[in-house]
Amino acid sequence: MTRAEKDYLGRVAAIGCVLCKRLGYGETPAEIHHVREGQGMAQRAENWLAVPLCPEHHRGKTGIHGNRMALKQVKADEVDLLAWTIEELNS
Hints:
91 residues; two-stranded antiparallel sheet; DUF968 domain-containing protein; RecA_dep_nuc
């Protein structure tokens, strides 16, 4: 991982969970999720395709690696999460 990628991922994590914000929960600490929409199962996404998610929305049962209920609530997919992340970075 390059220095630029580390810096970028730090900025992404500092945003807080983008899904919590959309659900009206406010700011919550986040961990990095790599967007894999449209990629094969064994392939890892680039660090530039990362979104900040809280532990529940990342690894929890309602999260992106669970049954995705939180995504269904806001009618979104991983690409939407990435777009919201980019908006936050540019605001």
